[in-house]
Every structure is written in C-alpha cells, then in structure tokens.
Amino acid sequence: MTPNAAPASSGPSRRSFLASSAVATAAVAGGMPLLAACGGSDGGSRDGTTSGKDAEKILPAYVASNVVTPDIPSRNGSAVGFTGKLDLADLKTSVPKKLGKGGRVTVMSPFWGSPPKDGNAYYKAMNDLIGVDVVWQNQDGNTYDQKLGAVLASSEVPDVVVVPGWNMTGRIPSAVIGKFADLGPYLSGDAVKDYPNLAAIPTDAWQRSIFGGKLRGLPMPSSYVSGIVPLYRQDVFEKEGYEVPRSCDEFMALAKDATNARAKRWACLDMKWTAFNAFGVLSGNEKSLGWNEVDGKLIHRIETDEYLEALEWTRKLFAAGVVHPDAELGKSNAADPGPKFAAGEFLIYNQDISQWWSRTAEQATQNPEFKIWGMDFFGHDGGDPALWAQNPASIFAFVNKKASEAVIRDVLAVANVTAAPYGTKEYMATNYGVEGTHYTVKDGVPTKTDQGNIDVMNAYVMIASPAATIAHPDFPEVAKGQVEWQQRMGAFTRKPSFYGMQITEPARYTNLSNDFEQLEDDVVRGRKKIADMQQAVSDWKSKGGDELRDWYRKILDENGPAAG
C-alpha cells in the first residue's frame, strides 16, 4: 500500500510522502490499558489500543515552538505555511547545544533511488552538527516490506528501524511491540522538554506513536486533511472557459465537454478517490479509519450506500469514455502521469498534494503557460462535502529494545535536530545539506546542486519531522494555495471514531479486507458489477467482519470515540 493507501493509479506513489514531508516542503490522547482486555497471543499486549487517561500518562507534554513564526498559521488541521523568500543570514537556531555524545547509531530506512556513498559530505556535516555517528543501512523502498520482515524476524536488528505505515501489515505491528524500546522514560510528560523540537510535535502525532501500551515511535507528523487533491489544468480551464465543477453532475457534464478522443484529449484519470470524498465515504487509508459509530452502531465504509454510489459514479465516468485510456487499461499504475498531463492528454487527476508544487516546478521553464491548481472537493449533490480525517502520522522510527540509554539519548539527539522547524539552521542542514556544496541560494530561493541531489535525499528526515509544513520560496503562490486548500477542506473534515488511535487488530483479521481494492478497480472499469461488491461485503461480514465489529465495539466502549 502507499502512504495514503490509495492505488498508484489514482493516489500518491510510494515515494510521494517525500515531497509532502520535511524533505520537500521547503523545496517544496486510569487503570490498565485496553490492550489487556482485548486478548492476544501473549496475554493481550499485542492487540487493541491505548487512549484516554492511559495515553495521557504516556504522551509527551506539548510545548509550541516560538523559534520561527509561520506566514500562515495552521487552521482546521492544515499545515503551517511560509510564503516569503529565504534569508540565510536570518536563519534561527533551534538547537543551541549539541546533545549527541559521540556514539554510533545504525539506522535502517527505506530509500528510493540510489543511496549516496557512506561518509559523504552531507552525512559528515549532519553527524557533526548532532554529535552522533549515524550509519545508514538504506534499503530499497519498493521492496522494503520484505527486508523489514526478514530483519525483524532475526536477532540482528539495527539501533533504529524506520517503519512506514503502509508496511504495518501482517506480523509487523507485533514485531514492533516485541522488538522496540519504550521511549516513555525519556519523552513522556515534561521529560520531552529536554528536546524542544520534539516537544513541539503535535500531540495527535505522538498518540499515533503508542504501540502496545508504550510510546515507541518517533513520528513524521502530517495534516489530518485529505492528502489527495483533484489536481487540474487551470490554464486550460481558463482558456476554454470551463467552470470548476461543484457537483457530480457538473463534473460529468464538464468531462463530456472536455473529452475529444480524436484529438487525444480526455477529461481525467481514474477519479475513484475524488468520488469517495464527494459521497462522504469513510477513509480507506488505514483499517481503523474505515469504522465509524452511527446512531449507536459501528458501520464499516464498505457497508454504506455512499461507498457503492461512489463506485457507480466512477464507473459511469469510465463508461462515458471520458477517462484516459491509460487508466482504463490500468497502465497509469506503471508510468508517471506527469508528461501526459503536461501535454494536455487529460485535464484532471487525483494525486498527493505534493504534486501541486512538483508539476509546477518541472514545467516552469519549458511550458510557462502551464498552471496546475487544486480543485475543492464538492458534495455529490452540489452541497458541502462530508470529508473524513486522515491519521496525523504515518511514518515512524523505532529504537531497538536492546539499545543502551546512551544509544537512546543519541537517537533522540538526532531526532531533535531533524524535527527542527522551517526557517532554522538545523532545518536547512537536514533538508539541504551544506551551503555551497549541496545547495545555493539566489533571490531567496534555495536550489540543490548536482551533489546535493546525490547526497541529500531521504535519510535524516526519516528519524522525526516537525509539524506539517508547506513552504515553496520558488513558488510562494503554490504554498499559499496548498495551505488555503487544506484550511477550506479542513472546515468540512470530521474525525471518525478511531481517529488518531494506533490500533493493532488481531492477526486472524489481517487479510480480511485484502481483495477490496482490486474489486473496486474492477467495478469502476466495468469488469465486475456492483452486485459483485455487494456479495463481497456479505462474505466479508460472515467471514469475520461482524466479529471484527464486536472487537472494535469493545475498544470504543473502553476508550470512547476520538475527540473533535
């Protein structure tokens, strides 16, 4: 699964989180925990969740950072935004004292692309800044789940292991609980104040970092507003006089008007994920988010009329011939849609919000008239949309249970630097490297050098990150647009019953829902019928869905629903 659990054909790619995390933002919640009550192979410690008063005893104190003031503050769950130019002489210091004690720390993390050589200038500079000798064991991000499973099943576990949420499948959650250290003694309550940048990480993200009743993860926070945006060619819309649709009927009318197969132009790619938002379908990007309490009963997303209606509307788009053939044949899963989007072969597609900036940047010189923008979600009938929150963190770094206190302190020293906010020296070092070697700044815009593009990739940012941030000094209007889009959509975003809870389902339910994503795609392409989906839902209920509902009911009764 991807970071947002959308299929690659309609949602973000496996590496898209890099562009929406700290790496690219600048270039771009008494008594025993419920776990003991939920059963499990070792007395209950591996199933369930920890929230409410039990979580309050574990969570770090929140102390907002005042080192840098964003140009656009967070509102309705949005990221903070920066729209000004970058002045290196005005960078703030968020870590005045080197906290590392010179120890050696090994880190296994997913990596997309070719890892730089050990001892490169970026690694050396970061290790000197932190006071820790970090040794990277980078693994291919595309096959990381396989490597992760093998390593966690062995006795040779590195000091730190990064686990993305989309790899939290099968036995991995249980391994996390069994193999990794409790960071509570170092971070719970006021203890976190020894690490000010970690104290400034939002509480929701820390809540997500509780595994097996202990604070085990160092999180990469994110906005709880949908990360998938209907992106469209604003320049073509303006030229052709198209209006941005405000209902499903308007979208269909626009799509038919804009499609001209003979001229190799289609309206869109697979719009399934926009349909889910238009019809108010619960999130599918994590198992627990697919449940919500309605009139006292727990309902799963696949049991709702809205779910079927969203699939049927998407099917009608395919049937009308307005979807680009690549998506119809499933080819968009294998290729970057960017070139054909830039060529005008289709005008609208769902993708991670990061592509709002990346498409703008890549077309700026070769196609100056090109303008991509984010379309607001609409209610299917033209009313306000009913949107559902995503979880506030999806990537975590864990420390080996066998690590000494010295190693744990050194890991936290690393995290305190990598979680530094935008506008600080530590942020620039983490995300850009060494000035002159890895990047230059012209007219307030930092640009990576060739060496920067080799050395400064997805390494240190994987340990911990600051609160969700959007900043594009090269295209400030895009940063403003992205944050304001999140704020508008956040106003319509509700938190489902299990929002923010790190829930480990019993292993017997691990594969219960595995086939639904493929079935969705088959239904919208006309290869299967709505009746097939209805039968699959019926089978799901009888094969464990109803039992799983009772299991979640117990969690809800013990912990209460998410606030907000």
From TrEMBL:
Quote a single Gene Ontology cellular component term. Answer: cell envelope
Coiled-coil positions: none
Q: Which InterPro entries match?
A: Bact_solute-bd_prot1 (IPR050490), SBP (IPR006059), TAT_signal (IPR006311)
User: Which Pfam family, an example, fits this chain?
Assistant: SBP_bac_8
Q: Does the keyword Transport apply?
A: yes
Subcellular location as annotated: Cell envelope
Write out the entry's keywords from A to Z. Signal, Transport
The lineage's top-level taxon is Bacteria
Q: Which family does it belong to?
A: Belongs to the bacterial solute-binding protein 1 family.
Put simply, this protein is called Tat pathway signal sequence domain protein
